[in-house]
Amino acid sequence: MISKREKLQYVCTFVTDILSLALSMALGWLMVDSLLGKVGNYTAPDLIQAFCLLMLAYLLTFLTFDQSENITTRPWKRELKISVKFNLILTLINSAGLLLTKAPLLSSQYFLVAVPVINVVLMTVFHSVLKKLLTTTRKKNSMESLVGVVTTGEDAGAMVRELQRDWSKRLTGIALLEIPEEQIGGQIEGVDIKANYDTFMDWLRQAALDEVYVDIPMDSGDSFVPYLKEMESMGLTVHFRLPLLDRIEEVCCDETSTARLSRSLSRCAGGNVVTMGTVELKLRDQALKRMLDIVGSLVGCILSIPIIAIVAIPLKLESPGPLVFKQRRVGRNGRVFYIHKLRSMYVDAEERKKELMARNEMNGLMFKMQDDPRITKVGKFIRKTSIDELPQFFDVLRGDMSLVGTRPPTLDEYKQYESHHKRRLSMKPGITGLWQVSGRSNIEDFEEVVKLDTKYIDNWTIWQDIKILLKTVWVVFAGRGAE
Asked: What dihedral do alpha carbons 290, 116, 83, 405 form, nearest 10°?
């Protein structure tokens, strides 16, 4: 469920950034035209076309950023970093649009550079003003929700501090169930204690409240159900904490995966079901990753065809057999698919692998050895240059793989996996990944590979994928880590 804060902040940020960009365009035109005299003669249709392309670029850029983060808690350095990144992407998308449409305004480079540079400053300033407005005018404009808390003293401080960070909520009071009557009227983190167990329902009935957060011990059992029923009948939004879920997280999740844990409540067979998952890719993120895969794989396929045609001749002359090696691999959550590579080994390589297992240099469930006799001379070259991986661009285009992910294991390797190893397969497998750009030839422990893969999954962003792709290009051209 999207919170009220996220909805309001999404609209406010969208409008603020539009105003910032519009003012940047006006100032950029004024500076380049009036001061530098570097703007040519453009017709009204030329300017309308350029404006429409810039707005389209803005929309695409805005959608690539996660707007759910609480803007009022961001320091100015982070605001500046976000502004620089936003305008860099905006410029790249806008420039691509101008190039594809051959827009006349493309010749005015001074203006195209001036707008994002000015907008970096204005966007940072506008966000600072927005923070001030959100925190000072929320009460006057009825933007905030009035919130009460029903809890015990042990958990009260942490809950109050967390709720106070949300600019869309105003904490009006707290009920501590276990305190004696004489402590009512005190404060916790500056919030008034309004009631205890004997009086908290009277307070809820009389107070102006939109939402109530309930955090009580699990052993309260059915005794608390009538109170919850009455809260719901009053039209309040009730947030009920699940201590059982907290205990599960403590046992099975580390700090990073807990932060990314997906939690949802649904119904099945007439009862409530809590759903947990350690991978939380929003629909927007899935669409962005797939778009990156399609564009990148199309470019990769076009570039691969002539390269494959060139290496095919010496490869076939040295070792007769199929040009492309097809092998069953294990992908996302145990799905089996066929991976395609240029054949770099002799045709009997799979049979000879069993004889060489004793010389495996990898500790764990992967096979790697120096000077593998199964690899042909041409095979060593295409492996060193990663040319053998080029057919996988077609696997990405087909949807079996992603450009960036975790390397898929063979069926034999997968059968030996322990439970925690399978978590590295909770995302679609990729041509490259964090392991490949972290010096894979120097990593000889499979557990280290698993750690890198789970680190990638837990911290996934589209920017991380782009960064890994750029690092991969560098690794390939530098000839590092491709043994």
From this structure: 20
pTM of model > 0.70: no
Rg of the chain over CA atoms, in angstroms? Answer: 29
pLDDT of residue 481: 47
Specify burial of residue 405 (Cβ count, 10 A radius: 0-12, 13-18, 19+): buried
Contact status, residue 218 vs residue 245, Cβ threshold 8 Å: no
Residue 63: name the closest of 40, 103, 93, 104 by CA: 93
pLDDT digit string (tens) for 326-345?
889 999 888 899 999 988 88
> Taking the mean position of all CA atoms in its chain, how far away is CA 413?
29
DSSP 70-85: -GGG--HHHHHHHHHH
Angstrom distance (rounded) from CA 435 to CA 456 = 9
Sketch out the chain's domains with CATH numbers: 4-137 (no CATH), 145-241 (3.40.50.720), 283-478 (no CATH)
| Beta strand 211-214 pairing with 237-240 | parallel
Cα angle at 333 between 471 and 256, to 5 degrees?
60
3-state secondary structure of 213: strand
CA 384 to chain centre: 32
Half-sphere exposure of 116 (CA within 13 A, CB side): 22
Collect contacts of 436-441 with beta carbons under 8 A, ≥24 apart.
436/407, 436/468, 436/472, 436/475, 436/481, 437/468, 437/471, 437/472, 437/475, 437/481, 439/480, 439/481, 440/481, 440/482, 441/480, 441/481, 441/482, 441/483
* Residue 102: alpha-carbon gap to chain centroid: 33
DSSP state of 4: H
Nearest to 325 by CA among 345, 304, 340, 309: 340
Out of 29-38, 143-152, 229-238, least confident range: 29-38
